[in-house]
Amino acid sequence: MEKIGIYIHIPFCKKKCFYCDFTAFPNLESWIKPYFENLKKEIILYQKNMNVEVDSIYIGGGTPTYVDYHYIEEIIYLLNKFDLSNLKEFTIEANPNSLTLEKLKAYKSMGINRISLGVQSFDDEVLKKVGRDHNKEIVLKDIENIKKAGFNNLSLDMILNLPGGNFDSIKKDLEIIKKINPEHISYYSLILEKGSYFYSLYKKNKLELMDDDLERDIFSYIEKYLKNIGLARYEISNFSKKGYESYHNKKYWSEGGYIGFGLGAAGFLSNVRYNNVKNFVKYEKLIKEGKFPIEFREFISKEEREKEYIIFNLRESQGINLKEFENKFGHSLLKKYGKIIEKFYKEGFFEIDQNIKFTHKGFDLSNEFYIEII
Description:
Structural class: alpha/beta
């Protein structure tokens, strides 16, 4: 039986942050109940048509912890009709200011074993400038409750290059992270996505950000600091204690299959990638008709899978095992892509032995290689 992951999208939140372009609806309580009714029907539709073993679940958003925990409980009750006997990781995303000790204890009793907390920064001035509705004090209280509820797998989401942020504020953030001692950190660079408030400010030249060289220097400092406190870099933007790498996210990077439930959710099954509709009226209509609420699907050819395999596996610190690549695709990576690899090898992007993997420089400038390999 195929082992797959499940992603569930909960599109509700209290306030949309200035950098956010996700399918998210702030302060739309009247939509919550009908949304979950349709979400349950979508899950049942898949269960009628599929027999799979699920080994990872990720509930994201939006802010899944914004809604009453009984809605999450109803969804998990249905998910238990899949084979979850070998479930390795069950994550729920949370934002500060949306958690209570009662909620956290309920999540723990439901089988959730990992919290991914969207901190972004511990600097109160930075948090104001990016539209967050929490401060450092609230984050620390929430983390205290996460530990009280019995969770021993905490991931913090941080963002580099936020307006108002600088090297000093990042250093202070890292000192706080050291005291918290989380099992996992995601440290992303700010991406200006179309549809976000920050993108519109950027197009009007009203957004002040770091230059690329400074950002790379700061990220290099972050990497060394986190390594010294036991959080090793295992992927371009992710760091963890040994054994706490995100099992679910590694599915995205290694061609693992996963189902996406909910508005705008993406899935990948049997070499077919698909996306659900983002419009709630269309979503509800398709569900009522007993149809999968998919608006886009594409078959990924062997050539495309090969290039995606290269890109995603190079994101991870161990890179690509050359023998495994040859067994999987029937030819040598170094022969087929020899000219491109040689060019970037001479520029110091790669280490090559049994594996090919990025050096520190390669990680920092990986997009330059990806553009050419595509």
